[in-house]
Write a structure and sequence with these properties.
The structure holds 2 protein chains of 2 kinds. By secondary structure, chain A is α/β, with parallel strands linked by helices. Chain A has a single domain, classed as Rossmann fold. Helix content of chain A is 30%, strand content 17%. Chain A is globular, with a radius of gyration of 16 Å. Chain A starts with 7 loop residues before the first helix and ends in a 21-residue tail after the last strand. The radius of gyration of chain B is 12 Å and the shape is globular. Chain B has a single domain, classed as Beta-grasp domain (Ubiquitin-like (UB roll)). Chain B is α+β, with helices and mostly antiparallel strands. Helices cover 17% and strands 23% of the residues of chain B. In chain B, strands 2-1-5-3-4 form a 5-stranded mixed beta sheet, covered by helices on one side. Chain B contains 2 helices and 5 strands, in the order E-E-H-H-E-E-E. The chains are: A alpha/beta, B alpha+beta. Chains A and B meet through strand 4, strand 6 and strand 7 of A and strand 3, strand 4 and strand 5 of B.
């Protein structure tokens, strides 16, 4: 689980309760802030100031004693990806910056690890599941991350707390289906929520044969800072 | 021909908070973007780069289909089509 925030908390909780013998690696280099508490449901006042990965691992171990929750106070980059993903069967991405999201996509494609990409901004949510070699990926949909300031971040636009629960639970559902050999729902399609208007819709994400992450084109074309 | 354009949350500040906009006369996606630009200054710059191509972190779908996989901005439109603007979002 990349990012133990608004999406990572409900996703990890649902997955831990659903799969009691799970090994769950929680990657986050951030600390709990008071302003997080409304939507980051694994944390309380007592955890303010503590690294999110540590606090979440402890809370999940209390709630689902059978799981193995392993905290990693680390930033996910193309350089740290291989070590952080060692032994992992599915990668869930609920991080809050574009560079990390594209790094997660590229690492999943390069290492052949299924990726569940969940994102939320204000009242809008997105879900895309990537099965390397079998379907499209985030770079088939968007060629790359925006430059800083081009699009609002969640720090600027906020994230609606109820939407985090919805998207996080959907991410856990996709991961559980993948871990049990089932068919993910958001494979090759971007599922979108407009939670303010109570609308959901899918758009198709066909595989791009020129995609530098999952296609036949050279992966050397991708440059991470 | 009239088409409906769905505006994503990050761009609604440019459309007076409208989530859906109707464009009355647009034969192509490019024409629809031009019309949106006329009505909502600043929107085009968010969608297209300096060369007039779709920005790498924004996509447009005609009904369910990704226009990048077809004729991109020259994709023809039919009466009643729905255009959905989808930007990358990173919140979590």
């Amino acid at each position: 689980m990349l990012g133990v925030g608004g999406l990572g908390c409900p996703a990890a909780l649902a997955l831990a309760e659903e799969m009691p013998d799970l090994r769950l690696v929680l990657v986050d280099d951030d600390r709990v802030e008071r302003s997080n508490l409304a939507r980051q449901i694994l944390f309380t006042d007592r955890e303010v100031g503590e690294p999110k990965a540590l606090a979440a691992a402890r809370r999940l171990s209390q709630l689902a004693p059978g799981i193995r929750a392993e905290p990693r106070i680390a930033r996910f980059t193309s350089g740290s990806a291989k070590e952080l993903l060692d032994g992992c069967d599915v990668l869930l991405d609920g991080t809050d910056d574009f560079e990390t999201r594209f790094a997660a996509n590229d690492a999943a494609c390069a290492l052949g690890i299924p990726l569940v990409h969940g994102a939320a901004l204000a009242w809008t949510g997105q879900l895309l599941t990537v099965l390397p070699e079998r379907g499209s990926c985030l770079r088939c949909l968007f060629e790359g991350p925006p430059p800083p300031g081009a699009l609002p971040t969640c720090a600027e636009a906020g994230v609606a707390s109820p939407l985090c629960g919805v998207v996080g639970a959907a991410m856990a559902g996709e991961a559980a289906r993948l871990l049990r050999g089932g068919q993910p729902l958001a494979l090759g399609r971007l599922h979108q929520w407009d939670a303010l208007r109570d609308r959901e819709r899918d758009v198709l994400v066909p595989r791009d044969p020129r995609c530098p992450a999952c296609g036949l084109a050279s992966r050397a074309a991708i440059r991470h800072p | 021909m009239a088409v409906t354009v769905k505006i994503p949350a990050p761009l609604r500040s440019l459309t007076q908070n409208q989530a859906e906009v109707t464009v009355e006369k647009a034969a192509t996606v490019q024409a629809a973007v031009d019309e949106l630009s006329r009505r909502f200054p600043g929107l085009k710059e968010r969608l297209l780069d300096d060369k007039g191509a779709l920005r790498r972190y924004v996509n447009i779908f005609r009904n369910e289909e990704d226009i990048r996989h077809g004729k991109s901005l020259q994709t023809a439109l039919s009466e009643g089509d729905k255009l959905t603007i989808v930007p990358a979002i990173a919140g979590g």
